[in-house]
Amino acid sequence: AAAVLKELGHDPAQKADVLVWGDGSEADTIARTLAKNGHTTVCFGRGTAADGLTVLDPGKILSVDGTAGRFLVRYEKEGARTTLTSRAIIAAPAPEYRTAADHATLSGALDLTAFASTPADQLPGQTAILLDYFAPETKAGSRLALNTALEARNAGRKITVIMNKMLVHGARGQQMYDQARKAGVKFLRYNAQKDIQIQKTDSGFSLILDEATLPGTSVTLHCDQLVIPKVPVPGPGIDNAARLLRQEKDREGFLQSPNVRHRLTHSPRKGIYFAGPAHDDVDDTDLSAELDGIMADLDFPGPAQNTGVEINQKKCAQCLTCLRICPHQAIFLNAKDRPEIVPNACFGCHLCVVNCPALAIESASCTPDRIAAQAEKGQVVVLACQRSAALAAGSLALPDPIRLISVSCASSAGVNLMLKLLVNGAAKVIVAGCHDGNCRSMNGSTKARKEVSRLQTLPGITPDQVTWHSVAANEPQRFARIISNTRIL
């Protein structure tokens, strides 16, 4: 959209001042691209300064405060402490890489990048490419493996790709996978590292693996060369970025899961973006696409949105629960040391509304009375996250007893709301939200699941009256099974 508008002659009146954070080549590429496109950019990295681009030491950042449009970054320069204001922050801390050379059992294995650059006439007769062996695969690694396997096969070489699972990541990856199979590339699958035995031989390598698609079947493969891609692991810069940005890391230690259901560049805080190695290994195509999306946001942010969530200061007990639990850092203490919501930073997840002990946080769209009024007596009410379960249900024809109510986040389903639905005559309440690690509000699904468990323990409530299910937006079949397995009283 940004490219089309620019072609039509529309150029934003104001360019966002952007801070890029990362000491690798990807961060340098991001910073230089932003500067070339007219954004005044400061990069806490290792590159060199240029027109519109200032480069500072990434190890000197002391704190990051503020919200979208006005972040306050305190850092140290030449022994003095300085404050920098920025309208947006792009985090792209460089990872480290784990290679076959780090494992004694894989001595002699070749790195995938080196194999891909080998001239076709110098390739060995038979090669095995082993994926997912000591870390989960990445988008860039999978694409490189498929492309390399296809080129080697077209050069007349025998290629076998051994994988735990091949996440092809969209139409482009699927097309490469299909082309490789059609060209004669062989694919084998295993379930765990223990299912593969690797032995170095005089002529190359011998691999014995339990084939996952044929239970009980052992496959022996002899090859001239074993190839393993390097795998990114979190570098020290990621820990520092996570601490200063107050961002939880995923189970692998990155700033954000590389789950394909995510809009990868968006963080749980407005105005802060994750790019490239902040969440995954990337190639030039990935990085360019991510940067295009970020620049579109910066150049054409659209009108400011107010989610309508407000703190009633007369009811507020100043317990600061809201300040502690807000996953988007949208609540701050004002000059009177009272919590206040920044409308432009609020995502409207309503986590604060549900969890305020004094019931002092109000939202016209999230009151239990308003939501409960949408259900009728005897119905099975499904409180579905609008970004996951509600989208999965969108294409389904639900039976009459089912009443689907879309909520901003599954965490909106607090005990008070679920009790009100049951008291008003709902036969059952189903809460459906994101899978763990996929919630835009970070822990919204976890909190919703805990609320359901808490309600199930109350006197007079049976476990099947209130249930929790995780459903992604691309899982309509899963949602349909949940509905079909629900016993309607």
UniProtKB/TrEMBL annotation:
Q: Which domain of life is it from?
A: Bacteria
**Do you know which Pfam families this protein is assigned to?**
Fer4_7, FlpD
Gene Ontology molecular-function annotations: 4 iron, 4 sulfur cluster binding; metal ion binding; oxidoreductase activity
Keyword Ligase carried by entry: no
Keywords of this protein's UniProt record, alphabetized?
4Fe-4S, Iron, Iron-sulfur, Metal-binding, Oxidoreductase
Supply the InterPro entries for this chain: 4Fe4S_Fe-S-bd (IPR017896), 4Fe4S_Fe_S_CS (IPR017900), FAD/NAD-bd_sf (IPR036188), Fe-S_Ferredoxin (IPR050572), MvhD/FlpD (IPR003813)
Q: What sequence ranges are listed for the domain 4Fe-4S ferredoxin-type?
A: 307-336, 337-366
* Signal found in the keyword field: no
Q: What is this protein called?
A: Hydrogenase iron-sulfur subunit
Q: Which organism is it from?
A: Desulfotignum balticum
- Source taxonomy lineage? Bacteria, Pseudomonadati, Thermodesulfobacteriota, Desulfobacteria, Desulfobacterales
